[in-house]
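Re-run with default settings, no changes from the original entry. Doing this only to confirm the output is reproducible before filing.
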Amino acid sequence: MKNKPESPHCSTCGSRHKSVFCSIESEEVKEIDNIKGCNFFDRGQVIFHEGNRVNGIYCINKGKVKIYQTGSEGKEQIIRFAKEGDIIGYRALLSEEPLSASAATLDDAVVCFIPKSQVLKIIQNNPSFNFKMLKILSHELGEAARIITDLAQKPVRERLAESLLLLKDTFELDEDKNIQVKLSREELANIIGTATESVIRLLSEFKKDKLIDIDGRNIKLINIPALTREANIID
């Protein structure tokens, strides 16, 4: 972790309009700015560890983060991703339970920490903030149910296709249709719960079928409608 002299200010944060804090009052913004702490992380650094207690929430100012659990044999299961404007660690804070997952950066990141006391104060005084928090928690619960169903019922090929589409929706595509996050083959395997070798084979098949193109860790989505059919996604 690097200590930098300059930390981002909430009032000028380019990610705040994307976050749960977008509707809070200006006075609340000032209070958060005065009490928060910010840390600078390199790619691959852990922000927090599964099983630890948390006394606040983390807000991503810059960068991309993976949220994952570690099995008994040390294998990761990636649960979800977070990007600029997202908050993490909030479920453990609100439930007053240990963290159920770890978080690590996928690229260089700036992450702000807002203490529990300030979060609870906003919850008590701002109904709009409460609604947004409830919406986030409900979405996370739905995503957890989807992951369980997919792992239990979908073939690996369908799970990989669905995961590529999920990455597209989460991080968007650049002008060349590349997914704007660079993941290793192992990380892709950890999303869908399979062996790295299976992901390598399936990516080659998708490339052969002209669904995607691959250049190192860059994945270009060539035929999204066909990839959606492969994922067997029902609207």
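Residues 127-153 form the longest helix (27 residues). The helical segments are 26-35, 90-95, 116-125, 127-153, 156-171, 185-192, 196-208, 224-231.
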